[in-house]
Specification:
The chain has nine helices and eleven strands. The protein is α/β, with parallel strands linked by helices and 240 residues long. The strands form three sheets. The protein has a seven-stranded parallel β-sheet with strand order 5-2-6-1-9-10-11, with helices on both faces. It is globular. The two termini are 28 Å apart.
Length: 240
């Protein structure tokens, strides 16, 4: 079971969704891995560059396998970040490292950087990496005004590329909102496409510090794990 996680924009919560899904699958007994091919904005720790996104995954569950091919310092498109450091990004290396992780895991989630049209090299965009890996696509969207346009554009671009779209998860969805734009966006996204909304992750203060067990419960209760991974899982009665 594999999945490519992309966003409708930057900072929409791809890492939280990717990590949450990996933690759920790991808790269900599936050996899980998260692959971050391109990490822009890598951080230095104890003299080494690390991926903050993969550090968050490890924080949720240390036993989830993680792998990053290109650790780049500049918080910008991978193409520009690599150019600044004289790094040559090779998609063939991405394919090889993905396959190596796939051989050791039951589930692999590949987290992109930004959205589908983020430049990776002079000749390739993030969507080319997703197409090369040939994985179902999960789109992470924000809830507020403008998300319909961004989400439909992402879906349409994915369809043009021939990608298999698993569905959409809306992150930071406010509970008990009276905002008409937020309340109607999920319905309109489904009405204008044949893609389903498969989950709503709530807007929670200090979400990064939510305990792993609580985050897993959030995902089990608010995300359609079966439809995302196209499997049948035991029905779990979980409550906060």
């Amino acid at each position: 079971m594999q999945l490519f996680v992309t966003g409708t924009d930057t900072d929409v919560g791809k890492t939280v969704v990717t990590a949450g899904l990996a933690a759920v699958m790991q808790s269900l007994g599936y050996k899980s891995g998260v692959y971050k091919p391109f990490q822009s904005g890598a951080e230095e720790k104890n003299g080494f560059l690390i991926s903050p996104d993969l550090s968050y995954v490890k924080k949720l569950d240390f036993y989830i396998e993680t792998l990053c091919t290109y650790l780049l310092k500049a918080p910008t498109a991978p193409y520009i970040a690599a150019e600044l450091e004289n790094v040559n990004i090779n998609l063939s290396a991405v394919a090889r490292e993905y396959q190596s992780l796939k051989q050791t895991c039951d589930v692999v989630l590949v987290e992109g950087a930004g959205g589908l049209l983020v430049p990776v090299t002079k000749d390739a965009l993030m969507i080319d990496a997703a197409k090369m890996l040939d994985l179902p696509l999960l789109i992470v969207a924000r809830p507020n005004l403008g998300t319909i346009n961004h989400t439909l554009l992402t879906i349409n671009q994915a369809k043009i590329a021939g990608l298999d779209i698993a569905g959409v998860v809306i992150n930071r969805y406010p509970q008990d909102t009276d905002d008409i734009a937020i309340k109607t966006a999920p319905r309109l996204i489904e009405e204008y496409t044949d893609v389903n909304i498969l989950g709503f992750i709530p807007d929670i203060a200090d979400f990064d510090n939510v305990k792993p067990g609580a985050l897993i419960i959030f995902f089990v209760n608010r995300v359609d794990i079966e439809k995302i991974f196209r499997i049948k899982i035991p029905k779990l009665d979980l409550s906060l």
